[in-house]
Amino acid sequence: MIRGFYSGNGPEYINCRLAAMLEKLRIEFTPSRARRTNDNAVVGSKNALVVRKHLAYSHIPSLLALTES
Questions:
Q1: What distances in angstroms separate CA 12 from CA 1, 16, 31, 68, one per listed residue?
Q2: CA geometry: angle at 3 spanning 25 and 10, to 5°?
Q3: 10: closest CA among 27, 32, 28?
């Protein structure tokens, strides 16, 4: 069970669609601090750990990956 989502400050992370999904799933959202580049390394390693836990090192075919136009 995921309790928190810690991300960077980019628009791919901070948007209404993501906020609505996290709210629905009752997942706490915490963005990294502005102008603190060291936070990004923490975000990347923590998020990669979660992905590896659930998907291992599996490849996700591009046909199955969600993309936005």
A1: 22, 10, 12, 10
A2: 80
A3: 32
Cα(52)–Cα(36) distance, rounded to whole angstroms?
25
pTM: 0.49
Tens of pLDDT along 9-31? Answer: 777 778 888 889 899 999 998 88
Residue 4's H or E segment, with its range, is strand 4-7
What is the distance between the alpha carbons of residues 38 and 41, in angstroms, rounded to a whole number?
A: 6
Q: How far apart are CA 34 and CA 18, in angstroms?
A: 19
- Which helix or strand (DSSP H or E) is residue 1 part of? none
**Domain locations in the chain as residue ranges:** 4-55
